Amino acid sequence: MVFGIFMAILDIQIVASSMQQIQAGLAATQDEIAWVQTAYLIAEVVIIPLSGWLSRALSTRYLFVLSCGGFTLMSLFVALSWNLPSMIVFRALQGLFGGAMIPTVFAVIYTMFPPRLQPAMVIVVGLVVTIAPTAGPVLGGYLTETFSWKALFLINLLPGFLVCLSTWLSVRVDEPDWQLLEKIDFRGILYIIVFLGSMQFVLEEGVRKEWFDSREIVFFCVVATTAGIAMFYRELTIEHPIVDLWAFRNLNFAVGCVFSFILGIGMYTSVYLMPVYLASVKGLNSLQIGQYVMVTGLFQLLSAFVAGPLAKVLDSRLMMAMGLSLYGLGAWMNADLTHDASYWEFFWPQAVRGFALMFIFLPINTLALGTLPEEEVKNASGLYNLMRNLGGAIGLAVSNTLMIQLNKEHYAVLRESVTPGSPQAQSLLAGLQERMAGLSLPDSELAALKQLYNLVLQEAEVLTFNTLFHIMALVFFLALLLMPWVRKVSADAGGAAGGH
Fold first, then answer.
1. Which of 23, 74, 218, 285 counts the most CB atoms within 10 A of its CB?
2. pLDDT > 70: what percent of the chain?
3. pTM score, two decimals?
4. Are residues 428 and 446 in the same domain?
5. Together in a domain, 191 and 175
6. For every residue of 121-173, which 3-state class applies, written as one string?
C-alpha cells in the first residue's frame, strides 16, 4: 500500500519537471499544458475527504485495489493520449484514483497496528510522502531525456499491478458496510465536489489570470463560497454525513490539521521554489536541478533513523517544536543567497530542512490521529490529508502572486541605483560594452544595455526568492505559538489501537 501512494505522489512532481517536453509532444500552449497538472490536483483534492466514507462502505481492501488499479490503468491511457483534451481527462481520472489511496494508508496505521508499532509505520509513510516530491524532478528529468515523456507514466504499470495483487491477497483490515451505499448523500457529495473543485481551480489558475481581474476567477470564487457554506451546513446537520466534520471537536485533531496545513505550505512551496530559482537564476537543466534538490530527500532519510528512536522517549510536543524550529531555520538560511551562490550554499539549508521534516511529520500524525476513537480515524485521515494538500495549494498560489509583486518592487528599487549619474553603473556598462565589442557585435552599446537590464532583473529575482524564504521561515516560527493548545499523547493513547 505504501508503494502505491509513492506512485501517486511521485506522479505529481515527476510530470512537473517535464512539462516543456509534454507541451511540445502535444503541440499545446503554455496555458493549455498547465491543465495537465491542474486537472490531476483538482481531482485529487476532491476525492481525499470522500475516501473515509468510501473506505467504510467498500472496505480498505476493495477501495485500495480499485484505486490503485484505476490509477495504473489511467497511467497507460495518459501515455496513449492522442491530444491534449484526452490527456487532461485521463489525468483527472488518474488524480481521482490516486488521491483515494493516500488517506487510506494513514488510517490503516491507526486501525491495524498497536501503539508501539505506529511510530515506525508513520516513519515509513512519512518518508514516502515527503521523499516522493523530492525524487520526482530527478527521475522525471532522467526518464524524459533518456526515453520520452511517455515513460513517466508507463513506469507505473508493473508496480501498479504488483501493488494491486499483493493488497488483494494480503490486506485484511475491515469488512465492507454495504448498507452505507443505500443511504448515499448525493447532495453532500455534490457540494463537496463543487466547493473543493472550484477552490482548487481558483488557487491553481488565479496567478495566471491575475486573480479578481478575471471574471472566471470571480465566478468560481462565488461558486466555491456558496458551495462551501452549503456543504458545512449539510455535513453538520445530516444524520449520516459523507464527511464527518465533528472530528474537529477534538482539539488535538483540529490543531494537528493546522500543523498539517503549515507542513503542506513548507513542503510544496520549497519543492516548487528551489527548481524555479535554480533554472531562472543559475540556468541549470532538469538533471542538474535534481542533483541540487535531492539533498532534502537524503537528509530526510537520515533523520528517520534519529527521529524514530527519539519518538519512543521524547514528548511528541517537544519533538514537534524541534522540527518546526529546524525547518524555520533551514528556510531562513535559504534566504541569504546570491546569484553566484555555490552548491554548498544550497546544500546546508536543504540539509537542515530535510532533517527537520521527519521531526514534524512523525509527531503531527500522532498528535492529530492518535487520540481519536477507532471508528473516526478513517474519516479524520481524509480531512487531515486534505489540509496538507490545501496548505500546498494555497502556499503555491500565494508564492506565485508574491513572486510577481516582489519582482516588480525589487526591480524598481534596483533601477533607481542604475542611473547615468552612478559611477558604479557607468563602470559596469563600460566593461560590458567592451566585452560585447570584443564579440564583434554590430551594436555593442545596445547589447551592453540589454545585458545590464538582464543583470538587474536577475538581482531582483534573487531578492524576491530570499524574501519568500524569509516569509516561509516566519510561518514556521509562528506555528510554535500553537504548541500550548496541544495535549500530550501517551504511548497507550489512541482509540484506534484500543482494540488490539
1. 74
2. 88
3. 0.79
4. yes
5. no
6. HHHHHHHHHHHHHHHHHHHHHHHHHHCCCCHHHHCCHHHHHHHHHHHHHHCCC
Residue 15: partners with Cβ closer than 8 Å, 6 or more residues away = 22, 36, 37, 40, 136, 140, 152
How many CB atoms sit inside 10 A of residue 289's CB?
Answer: 21
pLDDT score for 498: 35
Whether residue 137 sits in one domain with residue 203: no
CA atoms of 387 and 323, how far apart (whole Å)? 19
DSSP string, 317-338: HHHHHHHHHHHHHHHHHHTS--
Same domain, 54 and 107: yes
Select from 200, 217, 241 the last residue of a domain: 241
Which is more confidently placed, 125 or 89?
A: 89
pLDDT at 302 over 90: no
pLDDT at 93 over 80: yes
225 and 269 within one domain: no
The candidate with the shortest Cα–Cα distance to 357, out of 290, 308, 295, 304, is 304
Clarify whether residues 11 and 39 are in a common domain: yes
- CATH number for position 3: 1.20.1250.20
Q: Is the domain of 218 the same as that of 346? A: no
**Do the beta carbons of residue 18 and residue 78 sit within 8 Å?**
no
User: Measured on CA atoms in the order 370, 376, 378, 381, is the torsion positive or negative?
Assistant: negative
CB-based contact 81:90 (threshold 8 Å): yes
C-alpha cell at 184: 448515499
Quote the cell numbers at residue 132: 516522493
Number of domains in the chain: 3
Contact 270/353 with Cβ under 8 angstroms? Answer: yes
CB 181 within 8 A of CB 57: yes
Q: Residues 6 or more apart from 91 whose CB is under 8 A from it?
A: 36, 37, 39, 40, 43, 74, 78
- Residue range(s) defining the domain that contains residue 327: 250-500
> Which are the contacts of 333, defined by CB distance < 8 A and separation ≥ 6?
348, 349, 352
Q: Are residues 127 and 151 in the same domain?
A: yes
Question: Which domain-ending residue is among 194, 223, 241?
Answer: 241
